[in-house]
Amino acid sequence: MEHSLLIQSLVAAIFVSISASLLGSFVILKKMALVGDALSHVALPGLAFGLIFNFNPFIGAFLTLFIAVLGIWFLKYQTNLPIDTLVGIFFTASLAIGVLLIPEHDLLEAMFGNIASLTIQETNVLILLSIFIIVLILTIHKKLAINMLSEELAHSANINNKKLEFLYLFIFALAVAIGVRFVGALLMGALVIIPAASSKNISRSLNSYMSWSVIFGIVSAVIGILFSFKFNMSPGPFIIIAGAVLFIISLFFRKLRHY
To answer: What CATH number does the domain containing 88 carry?
Structure first.
């Protein structure tokens, strides 16, 4: 039973880490690392409602995240305020509401996740959603790259910047909602950011940057899951620590590359 749960957890974690790492590639390019970390906490009220009213916390997390990104996207074009300012408002309000509503005995799991609590059906759904995110990002990644390079250039290439940015935020909401069930709201931002940051240290092109980001994400996830089963603890902290170690290693390769 434990062996099958380990295999199930590894497969799920690999797909989730791939989707998070690909997303993280563009979070870093868009210089939204801190924004990405803050946005993950917006899931907390949704998790709280799921726990209180006894429905799947993933649904609650996604709904609150989707409402938040919809509000951020709308207000950006209505007020001309930068995205990081708007995310900061939603982040602080959501964090306060979530901490107040989440039952104390469930707070630790909401913050750090618990992959062992997922049913096979939930795991399969999250894997399918991760695959959907992966396909979607790979489909639009060139447009995203052009948009992040220059919105004027994207407009001249007949790219609808508003629609593309909304799609990007939608992907972000879905990926974070999925990842929260694995590493928790507190650490999800790191799952998105660290593999991409490690990849940036050693990559020379967009394709290699995305590829190495995925590799770092997968290795972190596998190491984290294996250690969590060995010590019978939540995998979230182990996954992030593994990612941080890989980031430090990538810094040495970055120095070697510049010699």
So the answer is: 1.10.3470.10
